[in-house]
Amino acid sequence: MFTVVVAWLAVLAVCVAAVLFGQTARRRPRRRRRRSPAARIGLFVSLSGPWLVVAVAAAVGAVTGAWLPAAAVGTAGIAVAAVVGLGMDPG
Fold this sequence. Notes:
Elements: H1 2-26, H2 37-64, H3 67-88
């Protein structure tokens, strides 16, 4: 049980780090032209994607009862969401 709690705390820590990483896309100096649609989607993915991945991983853990593998997959999914968001809106 302790391992599962620590794993989910790690998932939340990675999620917060990924969201803060995604904030870098928002904090750059404003350009005169508007963002492209891909850049807007990338910004959404980099800011909201990690939280959505945590919600899906928690739901999968609740449905299957496999909390530890769900935490591991959730951590990997958060990293993928952050990288995809950065790739679509590189700043």
